[in-house]
Amino acid sequence: MRRLTPTNLALIAGAALLLILGFLLLRGGDEDQDKLTGNESSTAAADDPEKRCSSKATYDLIKRELFRRAAQVRGSDQALFNRLAGYAALRMERPVLESEDEEKRQVSCSGSLSLDLPPGVAVVGGRRTLTSDVDYSLQRAADGSGDVLTLSNADAIITPLATLARTAPGTSPPLNPADPTYNGPGEMVPPNIAPMPAPAPSPPPPPAPEPQRPDPLESASARPSFNCANARTRGELAVCRDSGLAALDRQMASQFNQAMGQAGPGERVMLDRTRTRFLTFRDRCGTDDCIADAYRGRVAEIRDIMSGQWAPPR
Amino acid sequence: MSNPVLETIDLRRSFTQGDVTIDVLRGVNLAIQPGEIVALLGPSGSGKSTLLQAVGLLEGGFEGRIRLNGQEAAELDDDGRTALRRDLLGFVYQFHHLLPEFDARENVILPQLVRGTDHPAARERAEQLLSTLGLGKRLDHRPSKLSGGEQQRVAVARALANRPPLILADEPTGNLDEATADTVFAEFINLVRKEGSAALVATHNERLAARMDRVVRLHDGRLD
Fold this sequence. Notes:
The structure holds 2 protein chains of 2 kinds.
Chain A: H1 6-47, H2 49-53, H3 56-74, H4 78-85, E1 89-101, E2 106-116, E3 121-122, E4 129-140, E5 147-152, H5 155-161, E6 165-166, H6 234-241, H7 243-262, H8 265-284, H9 288-306
Antiparallel strand pairs in A: 1-2, 2-4, 3-6, 4-5
Chain B: E1 6-17, E2 20-32, E3 37-41, H1 48-55, E4 63-68, E5 71-72, H2 78-88, E6 89-92, H3 104-115, H4 119-132, H5 148-160, E7 166-170, H6 178-195, E8 198-203, H7 206-209, E9 214-219, E10 222-223
Parallel strand pairs in B: 3-8, 3-9, 6-7, 7-8
Antiparallel strand pairs in B: 1-2, 1-4, 4-5, 9-10
Helix pairs in contact in B: 3-4, 3-5, 5-6
């Protein structure tokens, strides 16, 4: 074997260094590539007029604008409405690009909007879903901070939203504002928001008893519908800790499975879509009461979907 | 004499399209006293709706002054104008603009809840107004299940629900057949009088205008 000279050693070291650098660059490139994909897609979304109409950022702007204007109509509770906006879910069916002004970088869009309120609050008549066909336009902010939204034809949502109130006791568990861990949406409703009384008498809904929080003694051995060994989210962990919540989970899951078995294609889609929203909401809850409320809301939601009383997006 | 519920001083509004500028309002001076019902007459395109838009604080771009219950509108920001609309004004349009997802009673309850009225009182008030207008048995019906005349009656009840000092009505029976329009218009005027509100009612119907306390005519951008 030839003896390694200092020159050879330097060459080998240089080659090794180049290899390492190349590897790092490639790895870095991968990471950057991931970021670029995100950037590319957000750039694409930012530049593609149709994607601007239907981007998550646009929907978030619309949601916040709805709550801002509802608070303005109400004349109070702006901060509360701002916070509630974070818990509401917005869906836009058939977003359409109506026109584009390339010079001003402005797009005008329309769509059928549905706003789902979080459990624990409702508008007149006990409704938690508001729908309307709306028009909206987006123009680049002069300071480059994003799009500026102009929303019109949304009174059918804004006016009822301004009547937002906590749901009546009995349909929602008593909230405990004194609990320092509580950060669920119900807590955000100040005492001066009057409870919403029961809606006007209407044809009786199909029999589906409103779930009550099970007696801890009766449900001491209750287990949730899922395997607690796999629990990861805050909501799942809470359900696994509390036998009352576990019983509610089983009850809801049983109702859901039964409903899926009986549902037509349209109802199945609705059950599935609303399920994701329910799980997201449940996992944001900060207290067991909030989670229990979420389950009660979900049970009512499933019942409404199956009885045709849940208002689907137009 | 008490302070006017509405006062406009030298109110002007122009629209510009390309090189063409049209002066729709050329200095409108108008005062309406509490409880007074005033007909605003003028042919189509004379600016009646523009004037109502202005005094309803629904659009900007006006010159001159608008005072509602002594409050200078120009001094208010967007929130202040919204509050003034909510607290002082009721609107009846040619087309009812009822919320389609809500029944007749709920449409009348809604503005009261927004104003802060508690639900039982708002419900009672809604039922009382709708019953007065002959809709006692149609409370639970959505707008799509009501006739045109019934829809407009609900719109009248909604406008009066908060007992506003001033009602602004733009051709309130303009989309109804003559017989229905006469009936609804009579009910509207009777109810406004009974409630003690003032009203500015835009119409081009001389016969209906004659039933009001005073008639003002918009001509060439000014009131005669």
